[in-house]
Amino acid sequence: MDDRNDGINISCISDDKLHEECGVFGIYSTRGGDVARDIYYGLTALQHRGQEAAGISVSDTYGPKGNITTVKDMGLVSEVFHKDILEKMKGNIGVGHVRYSTAGGSNPANAQPLAMNYIKGSLAVVHNGNLINADTLKQEQMMRGVAHYTTSDSEVLAYEIIAARVSTSGIEEAVKYAAMKLRGGYAVIVMSPRKLVGIRDPYGIKPLILGKKIDHDHTEGETGRISYILASESSAITSVGGEVVRDIRPGEIVTITGDEIKSDYSLCQEKTAHCIFEYIYFARCDSVIDGIEVHEARVRAGMALARESKVEADIVAGVPDSGLAAAEGYARESGIPFAFIFHKNSYIGRSFIKPTDEERSAAVHLKLSVLKDVVKNKSIVLIDDSIVRGTTMRRLIEMLKAAGAKQVHVRISSPPFLYPCYYGTDVPTAGQLIASHHSTEDVRQRIGADSLAYLRIEDFKDMVGEMPLCTACFDNDYPVS
Questions:
Q1: What is the pLDDT, as a whole number, of residue 217?
Q2: 335 against 2, higher pLDDT
Q3: Which of 12, 22, 275, 470 is the catalytic position?
């Protein structure tokens, strides 16, 4: 680890952040054409949701039934897939996945898609989220002889679908029967050799979005080629030249078969609880989820921070990249000039995907550096999206003061993170959360800030309006138990 004052290990920044478990992408090209390249680009747009493993499964609805081709491995999308690999993956229907391990651990065996053969055929499953009743379902599956051993809740989910498929008329019905047993937050895409099925958990904790792409070499009509897309974020849809149709409703099961799209709303319910961290940190800034523009939500959070905790300062700055939009809002509301005070080097490689601290330290260290001329003799309002363990913020403040900053006032565009998340982030215990065991004043002293303030839970209305939210990591109110 580089301990010099002019730089900080970026993998350290990654370790002191919350991580979404993964991103999912599925596509069905209705009149032929290979989709592997589109899945590659879609997964690249979702890379921020998981950097440990990537995978793609494809099938040709015009070819032999049951033929699914899968390639997956540890690494970034660009590391796992090359041009020659993609060219060999023939099929007009497919699913893809990027993984950041929480449940199941960092293990090549847990890379997705999960492609499986069973008595009635084959399927491939990609899953984002966590099942809080996975252990119970594992025991039931072992007792019924459905599965002898599973390593992740994604496998548990896949076996539930297979078990239901044996006694149902179609894959969409099997997905429905399996979903009736699931508890947690999840977005799942299932590919059979002829269909693409997506489902979002009934609370809407995890996002899932429907999109459409029209081949620009054809006109829409009898000879046109239309692709339907399911993805964790709208940015993945637009990155492949598609357009967003709508968000999948919480509890909705959507089935794509050729030109036909059908929805089953029988699992939808009145109570929903969308994950607020999609808007605070998880989602890409250019995404739109459940009708809310992520960048604007973060700007509004910064404005709310300025109204509640304004301080005299010379400049406002954000921690790249997650704090920049909120810093923009804070500057806009407070009238204090916005400035870039860090240079973040672009990264290519495996420093983020090493599964142990030792391997991360052994990787090539890329750095975040202070622009000394900007911060010298300045009082700074430094904005970030959250404080998890506190180590990164402490080092950033040390860097700024070593570079000549007079004061560093920290403002966080989320409330104190007090409780673990069981629906798909990588903080399993409250013991790893600095705010869970220390007062705001104690945290301020530990990180070395001149002042510290957080966004309030009631300020979420400024961010996302009246949208029902899951705020369990702040207030211990878990929607799914």
A1: 58
A2: 335
A3: 22
